[in-house]
Amino acid sequence: MTSKPIFNFQSGVPLSSWYVVNDGVMGGRSQGNLLVDQKGYGVFSGRISLENNGGFSSIRYDCGPTDLKGYRYLVLRIKGDGKRYQFRIKANKQDYYSYVSYFDTSGEWQDVKLPLNTMYAVFRGSRLNLPDFAASSLEEIGILIGNKKAEEFELLIDEIRLEQ
After folding, report:
1. 26 falls in which pLDDT band (50, 70, 90)?
2. 31 has which bridge partners?
3. pTM
4. Interatomic CA distance for residues 54 and 12, integer angstroms
5. What is the pLDDT, as a whole number, of residue 147?
6. What are the residues facing 109 on neighbouring strands?
7. Both ends of the chain: CA-CA distance in Å?
8. Rounded to an integer, what distance in angstroms lies between the CA atom of residue 135 and that of residue 27?
9. In angstroms, rounded to a whole number, what is the distance separating the alpha carbons of residues 49 and 23?
10. CATH topology of domain 3-163
């Protein structure tokens, strides 16, 4: 099966194109961060707070225009904490909305395979009346946690790739 890496934390590539967006943009108090641990895995971790109408933390990666021709799936090699997360993509990083797919973590290393054509458009947690994702490229990817409860979280990320 042919695959195309979007980001591999093990490669030693700097995190300069990644950024954190917490609910502080809306007055919330959640805190999240992204770092690379000693084993070379990306670690997205923090604490979700519901104070001041908060409730989410996210990381985003500006991957630049990435051709999706021939690829049907996004695959995440991750080790989670048993919580539910949301994977997000944007065909154009200037779009106000994202296309999302939820995934659950098991506490073990797992490959999460997300079909691109079932990702649906959302804005501020509300589903939009737009067709599911059908673009031929993407420019931004992200991972968000926002389960409507105060909680600590930790997600280890090995790689994110496209598969046919």
Report:
1. confident
2. 47
3. 0.95
4. 33
5. 97
6. 79
7. 7
8. 33
9. 9
10. Jelly Rolls (2.60.120)
103, β-bridge pairs: 85
What is the CA 113 to chain-centroid distance, rounded? 13
pLDDT beyond 80 at 92: yes
pLDDT digits (tens, 9 = 90+) for 59-91: 999 999 999 999 999 999 999 999 999 999 999
Q: Look at the chain and count its residues.
A: 164
HEC per residue, the chain: CCEEEEEEHHHCCCHHHEEEEEHHHHCCCCEEEEEECCCCCEEEEEEECCHHHCCCEEEEEEEEEEECCCCCEEEEEEECCCCEEEEEEECCCCCCCEEEEEEECCCCEEEEEEEHHHCEEEECCEECCCCCCCCCEEEEEEEEECCCCCEEEEEEEEEEEEEC
Q: Classify residue 9 by burial, with Cβ atoms within 10 Å: 0-12, 13-18, 19+.
A: buried
Parse the chain into domains and list their residue ranges: 3-163
* Amino acid making up residue 63: C
Q: Confirm if 35 and 4 have CB atoms less than 8 A apart.
A: no
Cα torsion angle, 56, 81, 132, 4, sign: positive
**Token representation of residue 91:** 């065909």
